[in-house]
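Researcher: I've been going back and forth with a colleague about how Translation initiation factor eIF2B subunit delta might be arranged in three dimensions. Neither of us has a model we trust, so I'd like an independent prediction. The organism is Pseudomassariella vexata, in case that matters for your notes. Sequence below.
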Amino acid sequence: MSTEPNGEPSQGAPQPKEQSSKSIQPPKGEKTGTAETPNALSGEKKLSGAELKKKAKEEKAAKRALAKASKEVAKGEAAVSSSPGQLGPSAGEVKGNKKGKQDATATAGSGAGGRPTPNRATPSMVAEQKATIPECFSHLPMAKRLPMTQADKSVHPAVLALGQQMATFTIDESINRLRATLLAFKRVIASYSTPAGHTLARHFTPHVLGPQIDYLTSCRPMCFSMGNAIRWLKLQISKIDMDSKEEDAKRDLCRAIDNFITERITAADEVITESGAKHIENGDVVLVYGRSSLVERTLLCAYSFGTNFSVFVIDDPYERAGQLLAKTLAAEGIKVTYCGDFGGLINHMRHATKVLFAADAMFSNGAMYARAGACDVALAANELEKEVITLCETINITERVATDSLTYNEIDPERCSAEAFRLLFDTTPVKYLNALITELGCVASKSAPILLRKLEEFN
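Model: Here is an independent structure prediction for Translation initiation factor eIF2B subunit delta. You can compare it with whatever you and your colleague have in mind.
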């Protein structure tokens, strides 16, 4: 290496960025003592061309290895950020553990003795997941498939299976989620034994029912009907006589759950279906959005009454659930026109006579909480002065109030990235809705508070 007169290395000479793992052997015939060993940094001796070439090759190999390692770490982090529900160490952490590196990330993902802690998210992964959602939407929850090993040890196997089904949207509609939840809680009650020195009324809710609810909520946020039913169940538990036998109390609770399912879900759906079918007349052209089991049964019931009508199905372009509805109706002999997106909405709306919705929930101010896109359909119907009818069980009515789609909503876990994300629901203002059909009758949509007062008197 050439040096300046003052002994400092010249700027034109190559500077090694890091020491190579291989030691540089001195030229043949030279002593290896400390005083006579060449020192490139101090400039005591100039390196030969062969040595410079060898050092450049080693530096190039080190840079190549560093770039390859950086690529693998970036690839692993991208995989984690693209799958927010996936837990476990990232590719960078696995690579670090293989090399024996003890950095902060590897420490967070490893247990005592260097053993990896199974199914635990590291702080870096949590930060990456939060970074994918803008801060103004950080209050909105998102379903995630949690490993069963993260659940509390007191969570019942039936609830564990239900949580996985909800997280993967195998059970999707709010009323179906409610029914499945109550049936799972019934199995929890049947397998419960009161510990010595405790009573069922005081021990069951905080120590047994609480962990079940927490696990289901962590898998997917509860719908409004689930919240209403859980409050009802807690009230029934609190009414249990302290002196009653455990078997009698458990039998009464299971019987109360069966009656609740029969009256508030099964019978309610039958009444709503028949009442909605009577609102469909001969010659009607009914426009529906997506697929709902309640809307499907209403249309089939109207057809069984001998009513001659046709249906326009406007589908959700992301889920395509309306395809199944169109096939089912067509198989029964109903004339169906299918549109896979909103491209033909206005044209079909001009020919429609009424619009039929099934609400996931109704707020106390009359607003409808339904599948994302329902508000667009209702707005188009209002512009063209078409009647909009909403079907909803009273268990789905909540005392809460919403005027927008950002107060209560969910983020679609399948379509969530750093660039964009999709909301699963939207809120339709009451001014775009005409009639609300429940098991208590047909009322104006703004009369939801009246139905709530009737339910409080009934309870």
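Researcher: What would you highlight for our discussion?
Model: I'd start with this: Confidence is low (pLDDT under 50) at residues 1-44, 76-131. After that, consider the following. The CA atoms of residues 148 and 160 lie 7 Å apart.
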